[in-house]
């Protein structure tokens, strides 16, 4: 199984790269933002509660997103692997993801972080807000709050994967296809290492 965490602040290009990656590697895309927006569209109670936080640019409680990921993993038992986009956003979410994947005899292969400067993020998100219909993309104060939340609450998740030697950072500015090529290079390097040492990887999962 090939499980990748695509990481980075809002507007870094995770959604765009995810679409290309799922087509290239035949993976299932799990975006907690998309899953939450689907709940909002369906008018569920979870969606209504999440919407208030999302519209303000704040994080939804860990147990809500972990529950959604748990269900999604169980609903996709036959998947070749997953791209996690916008999840995990806190260390407890990362710990839960490791536990959930272990239940499916799987693990995260690598995290690829897309790095983009704040001013570029704000410009991109305001531009996206013209067509995305997302209230959190249409107001500069909310956009900057999301970036602050990323810096204060989410950025430390990188350290969690770095400690497992799974963290790779890339410059997320430039042509989409160039960035895609660099993301693929990281993933292919990880797969090549797996092919060389499949036994070690299996032992890790069982540990
Ligand atoms: P995104 O589509 O990833 O930009 O997420 C939009 C919003 O959904 C975020 O600003 C949060 O309010 C919420 N959200 C998405 N994923 C998570 C997560 N893993 N943990 C907490 N909140 C999340």
TrEMBL record:
Classification via InterPro entries: Adenylat/UMP-CMP_kin (IPR000850), Adenylat_kinase_CS (IPR033690), P-loop_NTPase (IPR027417)
Sites where the protein binds AMP: 32, 37, 58-60, 86-89, 93, 134, 146
PROSITE patterns: ADENYLATE_KINASE
Pfam families with a match to the protein in the record: ADK
Record: residues binding ATP: 11-16, 128, 174
Keywords, comma-separated and alphabetical: ATP-binding, Cytoplasm, Kinase, Nucleotide biosynthesis, Nucleotide-binding, Transferase
GO molecular function, one term: AMP kinase activity
Enzyme class label: transferase
Record flagged with keyword Transferase: yes
Gene3D superfamilies found in the cross-reference section: P-loop containing nucleotide triphosphate hydrolases (3.40.50.300)
Catalysed transformations (reactions): AMP + ATP = 2 ADP
Binding partners and assembly: Monomer.
HAMAP family assigned to the protein according to its UniProt record, in alphabetical order: Adenylate_kinase_Adk (MF_00235)
Protein name listed in UniProt: Adenylate kinase
